[in-house]
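Hello,

Our lab assistant flagged a job as stuck in the queue for most of the afternoon. It eventually completed. Since we weren't sure the result was trustworthy after the delay, we are filing this so someone can double-check. Below is the sequence as submitted and the structure that was eventually returned. Let us know if re-running is recommended.
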Amino acid sequence: MFKKICLLVVFTAAIQLMAQTKQYTIYTLGFYNVENLFDTIDDPMTLDDDFTPLGKNRYDTKTYRQKLNKLAAVISRLGQDLAKAPPALFGLTELENTTVLEDLLKTEELKKYPYEFIHFDSPDLRGIDVALVYLSDLFKPVHQEKLEIKIWDQYGNRIYTRDILMVSGILDDEEMHLFVNHWPSRRGGEKVSAHNRKKAAYVLQNAIQRLLDEDPRAKIVVMGDFNDNPTDVSLKEGLFCKSNMQGLKDDELYNPMEAMYKKGLNTLAFRDGLHLFDQIMVSAGLIPENQDLKALFFYKAGIFNPEFITASTGKFKGYPLRSFSNNQYAHGYSDHYPVYCFLLKEQDH
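-- returned structure --
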């Protein structure tokens, strides 16, 4: 069974003027856009033809297995530098179905851990969904649902996009609420498509507000590929995201990725620009100054971008080492870097 890891770390609480050294349990929460994780079987109900042995990507079983193993190698390393353990929970996007999730968790890197997952099929025309994976000895789900985003194009035609996954459960004897997102793309241009992501923000914010109406200090983690940067309207105004955790109000979210974005950090390259679409945000209920530090609290977040998942040559040099390029397998991982955060809880002595 997976064991909790207690480490000695230094944390300076916002409500205190001096640092204190204590012993904490550390939980890593991650998120990863896994770039077209399809199986090799043609699904007549979705647009997955490119990812079949006869499709333009020549996507066969060997390629599929290589991609699974590469993704598992990345996921298993999220947060290892501090937690010395694999992530307790992680969200995924751009996966086709439950089969690919099961196959991913059967890889050598991940099968040693008691991972389980929550997944719903979404109406996206390409057949790509979102999911939450969790260590069953640490997290106990008690509620799960999908939040539908209904949007239309300028001609009144329905645009089918990914649902938002909401999961509530118990982590270290505390109730947690997690949202996994993959918001509508920028197809047609950032400005033309912006209203679609504003609608996604509206749907998500309503769900968050329902939780806060019941408990103003609910512990909420929002993660995903938002197809917008931390400073865009959908996040700043739609979700009330703030770049500073101090003084955070109950109806606001702290977005640690905004400071990273302003420093020039990124998780992907899109149309010759660097972007930070992949983000993790937390509610005021996880901010240290708002609670007893013997409860779960947010410590810090990061982007996992080591050299081995970064392109070293070619036109994508310095970008995430992608799986596919020019309609062929590029032997990479994903065109996105994963992101992660740490939740800590002080241990009784």
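-- support follow-up --
The delay was a queue issue, not a problem with the job. The result is valid. The mean pLDDT is 91. The helical segments are 61-75, 80-83, 98-105, 190-214, 233-236, 257-262.
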